[in-house]
Amino acid sequence: MAIIEEISELLQKGKVKNVKALVQQAVDEGYDPRVILNDGLLSGMSVVGGRFKREEIFVPDVLISARAMNVGLAILEPLLVEVGNESVGKVVLGTVKGDLHDIGKNLVAMMFKGAGFEVVDLGVDVTAETFVEKAEEVGADVIGMSALLSTTMGNMKETIELLKEKGLRGKYIVMIGGAPITQEFADEIGADYYTPDAASAAETAKKCVLEKHAS
Ligand code: B1M
Hints:
Elements: H1 2-12, H2 16-28, H3 33-53, H4 59-80, E1 89-95, H5 103-114, E2 117-121, H6 128-138, E3 142-146, H7 155-165, E4 173-177, H8 183-189, E5 193-194, H9 198-214
Parallel strand pairs: 1-2, 1-3, 3-4, 4-5
Helix pairs in contact: 1-2, 1-3, 2-4, 3-4, 4-5, 5-9, 6-7
């Protein structure tokens, strides 16, 4: 398990190249990619989060650890995503306006791909107008929104309100998630589903889309 702990520690130190090399080495040595993700990368990022909160480290330090995280994720993606032949449906996914956090959103994208969805990733800082326009343009089944800041989570409601204004609310399954999001908040803004993690987001979406297509 030493290599997994080392990945976590290198991520905490922001050693992007070393994280990349070690994640690849762990893969080559046959470690389960979920273990590399959870016990290596995510566990390292959680330590970084704690230090950031206690103001022991600052934005540039977190940013470089996030870069290491995304480099590691890119290596794991093909292993975590075993895409089937048949498309389950389409999801338009993004981090809401004003919010630049994309690690969780990238994980959600991966899990959706793994569940057989076509993912249209709108990136970060996505406005309500863009969510709705893109969903219409590509014929999406699901609109997925991520937010990590208590100051940006309210922007999820803007998308839901815009859908209502345009008479499109019933057309899409609206899913939300991110560290500050709760079921109570989802109920309050009228989202269809809140899920606490990426894997359950993809499972829930698959179940709902298949049920919707069957009815
Ligand atoms: Co920021 N940041 N950050 N940050 N950052 C947090 C979120 C914070 C909690 C840190 C802290 O103080 N403890 C805090 C927010 C406090 C709050 O609002 N309550 C914070 C702050 C304050 C800020 C800035 C304002 C700091 C500043 O500038 N002074 C600033 C804001 C910038 C902006 O967005 N406008 C900022 C900036 C940054 C960086 C750029 C440096 C960097 C982001 C880099 C990047 O994403 N590319 C960063 C990071 C990395 C973090 C922490 C440390 C880690 C976030 C992360 O990636 N976690 C974070 C601390 C923390 O969360 N403990 C923090 C790992 C990721 C896998 O988890 O995204 O939660 P998460 O995703 C989970 C679930 O939430 C879920 O699935 C994933 C797990 O499977 N999920 C969904 C996510 N989206 C979903 C969507 C779904 C379903 C599930 O359905 C569609």
